[in-house]
Specification:
The protein has helices spanning 4-19, 34-45, 49-63, 72-78. By secondary structure, the protein is mainly α.
C-alpha cells in the first residue's frame, strides 16, 4: 500500500500527463513485443508530423480505415453532392398554441 505522499505524487504526475493530453492505459500482448509497443507509444506521444504520419499508417494497416479526426463530420458534409444546392430552409413562423398550466 502506498503512503499518502506517494499517492499524492502519483496523482500529481498523472494530472500533469493529462494536462499534456497523455493518458495511461494497459494492454495485453506477447512479452517479446513489450519494448516495441512502448517505443511506438513514445513515438506517437511526440505528436509531431512524423507521429501523425505513423498514426495514420498504423490506423490504416491495423484498423482498415483512416483514424477519426476533429471536424470529420463537417468535412463529410462539405463533400456532399448537395453542396451549393439551392434549398429554402426557412420555417413558417406561427404564434404557437395556448397551453393551460
Amino acid at each position: 500500500m502506498a503512503s499518502n505522499s506517494q499517492r499524492r505524487a502519483v496523482d500529481a504526475h498523472r494530472k500533469r500527463l493529462a494536462e499534456r493530453g497523455l493518458g495511461r492505459f494497459e494492454v495485453r500482448g506477447l512479452e517479446l513485443d513489450k519494448e516495441l509497443v512502448r517505443s511506438i507509444a513514445r513515438r506517437l506521444a511526440a505528436n509531431d508530423a512524423e507521429a501523425n504520419a505513423m498514426r495514420f499508417d498504423l490506423a490504416r494497416r491495423v484498423g482498415g480505415s483512416e483514424p477519426q479526426r476533429v471536424g470529420g463530420v463537417l468535412a463529410a458534409l462539405r463533400r456532399s453532392p448537395l453542396v451549393g444546392a439551392d434549398f429554402d430552409l426557412a420555417r413558417e413562423q406561427t404564434p404557437g398554441r395556448d397551453a393551460e398550466l
